[in-house]
Design goal:
Layout (H helix, E strand, L loop, with lengths): L1 H16 L8 E11 L3 E15 L2 E9 L5 E10 L5 E5 L4 E7 L2 E8 L6 E9 L2
Antiparallel strand pairs: 1-2, 1-8, 2-3, 3-4, 4-5, 5-6, 6-7, 7-8
Length: 128
């Protein structure tokens, strides 16, 4: 009898636990603020364009201000955690950890290194 009640509770809770996967497709823009061992204080505009998404995983391209002037671009791969809010991205040198709340993406980039460690965060807003 206890087993039947347990199974019934699981069946009732399963639809409530299932979450719709949010679409990240499109352009996200904002500004960054951080510090690098080599480059010093780092600030400037950031644009993230999510070009393809299959389930929770996606491809993106990020554009940010170069400490030496101009812009830099990098291709990223990412995934949305099962909680529907935590996002993890990998690029050429470091990792991005982000949190999604509605149309706002709070993202931080971490790059370890003896001489060139870098920590930068940005708040990106989904563009219409």
């Amino acid at each position: 009898m206890k087993y039947a009640a347990f199974i019934a509770a699981l069946l009732i809770a399963a639809p409530a636990a299932a979450q719709e996967i949010p679409s990240l497709l499109g352009t996200w823009k904002g500004a960054s603020d951080g510090l690098g061992k080599q480059d010093g204080w780092v600030t400037g505009p950031v644009t993230l364009v999510v070009t393809e998404q299959r389930g929770r995983s996606f491809k993106a391209r990020i554009t940010y201000a170069s400490p030496k002037g101009g812009e830099q671009n990098e291709d990223l791969v990412g995934t949305l955690a099962p909680d529907g809010a935590s996002i993890y991205l990998a690029g050429d040198d470091g990792i991005h950890i982000a949190a999604l709340k509605g149309g706002i993406l709070d993202a931080c980039y971490l790059e370890p290194g003896d001489n060139d460690g870098l920590a930068v965060c940005s708040r990106l807003q989904k563009q219409p």
